[in-house]
Amino acid sequence: ATYEVISSPVRAPDGEGALVTLLDVSEREKAGQIRRDFVANVSHELKTPLTALLGFIETLKGAAREDAAVRARFLDIMEREAGRMNRLVSDLLSLSRVESEERMRPSERVDIVALVHAAALTLRSVAQDAGVALEIDTPDAPMEVQGDSDQLVQVLTNLVENGIKYGGAGGRVRIIVTHSPRELAFRGPAVRIDVVDYGEGFDPVHIPRLTERFYRVDSHRSREMGGTGLGLAIVKHIVNRHRGRFRIASEKGQGSRFSVMLPLA
Ligand code: ADP
After folding, report:
1. Which residue's C-alpha comes closest to atom 23 of ligand 1?
2. What tens digit of pLDDT does each residue of 87-133 get?
3. What ligand 1 atom has the least distance to the C-alpha of 227?
4. How many A from CA of 35 to the centre of ligand 1?
5. Residues 43 and 36: beta-carbon distance below 8 Å
6. From ligand 1's centre to the CA of 214, what distance in Å?
């Protein structure tokens, strides 16, 4: 533990003295360290594409200016790098909004069954473009939670897009919604949303750290797939805000299952 020493002089009947207070600042130091690491990570993540962009601009201003084929190829790379920065900034904004709202209980009544079907309309075309089938399996009757529909769509989007990116080789991603009559964590009924893929999976040793910002099982692969390393951190904060639970299970080479449990309204 780290202590801060606060000493204040006191006057006692028999002379001068001092009152010494030891304040345990370990928690504050840890929070400071996490913040410094985060700023360092963000700077690094932004600097990498920026350096690439500056390099290509420099080359385009020089020799490459005359060659149309080279120019087209460089512009493609620059577009990709700018897109990466754009996604990173969007995810940072989402993360900071979600974090600042974490203590505010969401107030909408949201039907998870309808929300999954609506989100699937958009997600199915993302899946199709990647040659992946998106399968939806939900009950027919509505299942309502107290929530924030935009944020719950973001949870589904992040999990399904990960399933497509890292599990696409398995050919299909499934969203399964079930009613869980007595979820222990909530002392009451819950709705459970599973996003399952049959792709590359990962060693379960990574599970405890996977929702940390910028933690990736394979950084090179994540970057290649256009990942920011923030998707699961955003999911975790949104699930917390909904007083829900988030569980991850995976097996290398077998696929992964990301489960969100939310208390029913
Ligand atoms: P990223 O933007 O890198 O995808 P995420 O926070 O969404 O960041 O995920 C963190 C890491 O978790 C990913 O880099 C990847 O290594 C791993 N991961 C997430 N979803 C899956 C999945 N469905 N299958 C395999 N690995 C996954």
Report:
1. 163
2. 999 999 999 999 999 889 999 999 999 999 999 999 999 999 999 99
3. 2
4. 22
5. no
6. 10
Is pLDDT above 80 for 135?
Answer: yes
| 63, 92, 103, 188, 217 from 210: Cα distances, Å | 44, 17, 23, 28, 8
Centroid of ligand 1 to alpha carbon of 225 (angstroms): 10
Q: Which of 94, 245, 97, 264 is nearest to 179 (CA)?
A: 264
The position carrying tokens 């600097």 is 47
As a whole number of Å, the end-to-end CA separation of the chain is 43
Global pTM reads 0.88
- The structure tokens listed for 187 are 């002392």
Residue type, 140: D
Phi, psi of 250 (to 5 degrees): -155, 160
What's the 90 CA to ligand 1 centre distance in angstroms? 17
